[in-house]
Write a structure and sequence with these properties.
GO terms for molecular function: transmembrane transporter activity. Pfam families: ExbD (PF02472). InterPro entries: ExbD (IPR003400). Belongs to the ExbD/TolR family. This protein has about 140 residues and is α/β, with parallel strands linked by helices. The protein folds into 2 domains: about 30 residues, no CATH class; about 80 residues, Nucleotidyltransferase, domain 5 (2-Layer Sandwich). The protein is about 35% helix and about 20% strand. Strands 4-3-2-5-6 form a 5-stranded mixed sheet, with helices on one face. Helix 4 links the parallel strand 5 and strand 6. Helix 3 crosses helix 4. The longest helix is centred in the first third of the chain and has 17 residues.
Length: about 140
Amino acid sequence: MRRSFSASQQVEAEGEIDITPMLDVVFIMLIFFIVTASFVKESGIEVNRPDASTAQAKPRANILIAINENDEIWINKRRVDESQVRANIERLHAENPQGTVVIQADEEAKTRKLVAVMDAARQAGVYDVSLATEAM
């Protein structure tokens, strides 16, 4: 049995382009860029950090804590009570055990609040705690 196609049916069959492989490639590229992208973490507020001539960049600062001039503590764009700092640090450290804590304290923040946050980080098991400053 022989099948015969008319000329219009042959042109229509030849003119279709299968885009499934292209969609697969685009999807794989999307996954690649999402996985390899570096996301910038922010503490949630802008603070006036003190100047320091010996400031060094911290490459793996994953837990950012900010203390503003009113001694309010901010973690992940949320205001956190002083009693909840340790629990938040423990949770964030469990998500990324290699991460470090960087405290962004305002110049006008009280030293007592800064020491309380540093103490909470150490109680949470994170001993790599740094203070963010402006490089001179």
